[in-house]
Design brief:
CATH topology: H-NOX domain
Bound molecules: zinc ion
CATH class: Alpha Beta
Distance between the termini: 30 Å
Number of strands: 6
Largest sheet: 4 strands, antiparallel
Structural class: alpha+beta
CATH superfamily: H-NOX domain
Oligomer: single chain
Shape: globular
Strand content: 5-15%
Strand order of the largest sheet: 3-4-6-5
Order of helices and strands: EHEHHHEEHEE
Radius of gyration: 16 Å
Number of helices: 5
Length: about 210
């Protein structure tokens, strides 16, 4: 896969119910029900208050709505926004594993059968497969460059239609960190994850470099 590759996402691109639901569960766990309702209202998603999307693979929401919800969380939590989004990303991953393994096809990843050194890449490939199977425009690449895992999402929905001078997909950083913890049995803090490129900055993709902390 080449870096010149890019995915043109229409502004009203659809998004999968189960993926928005996963984030909603994560938000409620971290911010509580009142916090969840506040950010739903702030992102014009009042229709989802006490009425979350069903846990299925239909695309009845929009990628833009998923992105706006991310933005609303950042606004709602102010200076803590980045850390809060990472926490929500970690919680979302756990909810995904717990409640959506079958829906997302993650149940098939037999991590325990793999030696420890292969598990991190395996979980990233599992996420890649899940996203590419269920999101019609999903395009993700995973590389291992001398022990640095490079995860690239060419159609990131967290920052869809958003603009910023810096990388803003903090929720993704949290999700990938929790995936590393899940794969290795270590704490997420043992991993250093940096979003080097972000579509919100005008880059062609959102890219994350994942390293073991020394
Ligand atoms: Zn992004």
């Amino acid at each position: 896969m080449s870096d010149n590759q890019s995915v043109i996402l229409p502004e009203d691109a659809p998004y999968v119910n189960a993926l928005l639901l996963q984030m909603i569960w994560g938000i409620e766990e971290v911010l509580g029900t009142n916090g969840l309702n506040a950010v739903l209202r702030a992102s014009n998603l009042n229709r989802l208050i006490d009425n979350p999307p069903p846990n299925n693979l239909e695309s009845e929401v929009q990628a833009r709505e998923y992105a706006m919800l991310n933005a609303a969380i950042e606004e709602f939590t102010g200076r803590a926004g980045k850390g809060m989004l990472q926490r929500i990303g970690r919680a979302s991953f756990r909810w995904g594993i717990k409640e959506q393994s079958a829906v997302m096809g993650l149940a098939g990843i037999a991590l325990k059968a793999l030696p420890q050194r292969l598990r991190k890449r395996a979980i990233l490939l599992g996420i890649r497969k899940g996203l590419m199977d269920i999101v019609e425009y999903g395009l993700v690449d995973v590389q291992d460059k001398n022990g640095v895992l490079i995860y690239t999402d060419y159609a990131c929905t967290i920052c869809h239609t958003r603009h910023d001078e810096k990388s803003i997909c903090h929720l993704y950083v949290g999700t990938l960190g929790e995936a590393m913890a899940y794969a290795t049995g270590k704490d997420f803090r043992e991993f250093d994850i940096v979003e080097t490129d972000c579509r919100a900055k005008g880059d062609g993709f959102c890219r994350f470099e994942i390293r073991d902390k020394a």
